[in-house]
Write a structure and sequence with these properties.
chemoattractant activity, antimicrobial, transmembrane, alpha+beta, membrane, Beta-defensin 103A-like
């Protein structure tokens, strides 16, 4: 019979737990094709930083498009200078 140290038994479930948490975090951050929620969120944040707003259909006549707010058709618009 082999001698088993109790400190080694305690660390293995913790390592498995960290591995499981890493896999779940990776799957959560993995972009889904067609969704791109992480990228869209960053684009919206960048638009807000530039003192602009996201328009659903298009910019108003007194506004200009300076980017996009999502991977779809939302546009980042600001007032013309």
């Amino acid at each position: 019979m082999g001698v088993v140290c109790f400190s080694q038994l305690g660390s293995q479930p913790a390592i498995r737990l960290y591995y499981l948490l890493f896999v779940l975090l990776f799957l959560f951050l993995l972009p889904v094709p067609g969704n791109g929620s992480i990228i869209s969120g960053l684009q919206k944040y960048y638009c807000k930083i530039r003192s602009s707003q996201c328009a659903l259909i298009g910019c108003l006549p007194k506004e200009e498009q300076i980017g996009r707010c999502s991977l779809r058709d939302r546009k980042c618009c600001r007032k013309k200078k």
